[in-house]
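Problem: given the chain below (201 residues), write out its structure.
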Amino acid sequence: MSSRFSIWVLLLLSGVGLGALQAAGVSQQQAEAFSKKMAIVKEQGTSGSKSQAARRTPFTETELNSWFAYRGGEVMPAGVSEPRVTLIGNGKVKAAATVDLEAIAKQRSSGRTLDPWSYLGGRLPVTLSGVLRTENGIGRFDLEEAAISGIPVPASMLADIVSHYSRTADDPEGVRLNDNFKLPSQIKQIEMGAGQGVIVQ
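Solution.
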């Protein structure tokens, strides 16, 4: 997985969430603050020095929302837009983005009457909720619910979407939902609280 894409996956699973962004909280200054923090995390992850004490980099939901609003285009794949963030606490996150489902629907549809992919296409809101678990440099996202345009869908449909948009030349199958993944930049864990998180290296 490329470092550019692994950062996108990390941010997405860290809490791309439901609900409208409050314009008063989202700002270019907050986006810049988040960018600086991620630069520090990356630098600490590539430095050869081993620190005895854990290095902790806190971030807020507003900073993450602002980063997605002003800088998210740098890492989001084409066809995925308008991510929004809600960090609920105790690892629980909710996620939403507008996703272009046309290509996936054409590829996945069997043409059968009861195949849900036969009825989907265009740009639609995709939402999910679940729990992000991280420990010893390994992360896992346990999906609890998924919906397209507010209609609940099986986990397999969300897995198709994640796989499609996470494919790279190095990883043609893409990310598999609910599989363990290695955290980038020597991150040991991400502590998720209500409205805030801490990256621990």
